[in-house]
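Help: why these numbers?

___
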Amino acid sequence: MKTTVAELLTIKQGLLEILNFPVSSSAIAFRVQNNVRKIDDELKTYMEMSGKLAKEYLKKDEEGKPIQLENGGFMLDEETAMEYHKKNSEMKEEECEIELGRFTFNDLDKFEEPLTASIVYLIESLIDESPVDSDSK
């Protein structure tokens, strides 16, 4: 499938949410984890470039070292944060080609817990059919 880095990040978020859901099909469990692995492989370059870009735009002390916050994180320099976000957004719009395992609603019904609407939204591009909503009849 042809997609963007941003969409892969969204799909990965949804797959990670269902990764630990009990499912009655080993094939579906394999498809979920295999998709996560393929996405990780595809995103490797983006993650490296994004990390380098962030380091470039971090707020630094007088010695040029990034300032670490109390919580262990770092903060972007306020003066250049917009430029960072613009460049990062451009990187997320890069197109890529990836083959991912697809799901039907029958597959998704094999999870022991129903998937939330937010999870279905995140993985929507991997779902092959329209739902048949027996509850609406």
Observations:
- The mean pLDDT is 92.
- The first strand starts at residue 2 and ends at 4.
- Residues 2-131 form one domain.
- Helices lie at 5-18, 26-57, 81-92, 105-108, 117-123.
